[in-house]
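I am still getting used to backbone structure tokens and would like to learn alongside you. Would you supply a protein for us yourself, any chain you care to pick? Start from the sequence, derive the backbone structure tokens from it, and show both lines together. Go ahead whenever you are ready, and we will take it from there.
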Amino acid sequence: MSLPLCHFDNDQHDLFGVNGQGELFAPTPARAYKPNLDKVRSRLNAILAEARAAKAMSGDFDEHSLYRAAFPSLLRHLPDEEAARYAREFEAELVRLEAA
């Protein structure tokens, strides 16, 4: 007759509480993030100023990737009309730099 390696009695208490893992894997409530719109606009304006000051597209691929990802991410925090205006200005600068 072989004995089980581990034996649990039906009346043995669950080490982690009633639900097995307790609250360990419970969903966390979503936090509402509201960025400071003045800082968002300041960052957008800084990126645009840098693009406007450039004579041609630099060879720094990482910088281009960052701006192409960061700019739209920042735009989503602004009102639609304002975001559209910034998007048009940014796109115009990219077209100008790529043509140079």
Observations:
- DSSP finds three helices and no strands in the chain.
- The chain has a mean pLDDT of 81.
- The longest helix spans residues 80-99.
